[in-house]
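Lab notebook, entry 214. We have the chain sequence and a SMILES string for zinc ion, and the next step in the workflow is to get a structural model of the bound complex before anyone spends time on docking refinements. Request logged below.

Task: model protein plus zinc ion, output C-alpha cells.
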Amino acid sequence: MEETRLVLLGPPACGKGTQGRLLSEAYGLSYFSTGKQLRREVEADSELGREADTYLSRTEYVPDRLALNLVSGWLAERRGGWVLDGFPRTVPQAVALDAFSEERIGGMRALLIDVEREVLAERVAQRCECSRCSWVGTLEEVRERGHCPDCGGGLNQRRDDEPEAFQKRMDVYEELSLPVVWHYEATDRLLRVSGIGSPEEVFTRVRSALSKHG
Ligand SMILES: [Zn+2]
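Result returned:
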C-alpha cells in the first residue's frame, strides 16, 4: 500500500491539531505542526527562529519562503507517511509543495475539517485555558468548579479567541487559505469531512473518508 501523505486544512479552531495527532497515532505517521516547529526554532534562537519571531510577535503568519524552508527541511528527512498541520496556508505554498513533491514524494492528499464560521465563533467563545498549566477546555466543563480541573489555577480566555482576534483570524483564513482548499479540489485531491461533534466522532469520519479514497 502507498504511504499516507496528508495535508490538513481548515479554519481556526476546527480541530485540525487534534485530528492530526489522532491520525499520526492511528496510522503511524510523522506529524508536523508549523506553529509548534516555529516556536521551537524561536526558542532555539536559530537564524530562522529569529526571523520568524518578528512576524509571530505581531501574530502574523510567516512569509511563504520561510514556511517552505521549514517544511522542506523536515520533509527531506522523512521516511514513510506523514501529516502536515499549518502548511500549506497559501496558494504559493501549495504550489511550492506540489513542485517539491513531484521530485520526491507522491500520492499526497488534502483533508479539510469543515466547520461553519458561526459555529467556530461559538466554539471559541466557550473555550478557556488555565493560567498556570496547559489545560484547555470549555466553560461548560468547569461550570461548577470555576477553576482548572488539573491544577486548580484560574481560567482565562485565550487572546486568540477573543471575538475581535478570532474574526480577524477567520478573515485571513478566508482570504489566504480558502483558495488552498480550491487548489486541491480542482486537482481532485480533496477529502472533506464535517468537523462538528466530539474529536472521536470527527475522527471516525476521517477514517472512513481515508478508507474510501485513500
Ligand atoms: Zn491548570
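Notes for the group: Strands lie at 5-9, 30-33, 82-85, 108-114, 127-130, 136-138, 155-156, 190-194. Worth checking against the assay data. Residues 130 and 208 are 34 Å apart (CA to CA).
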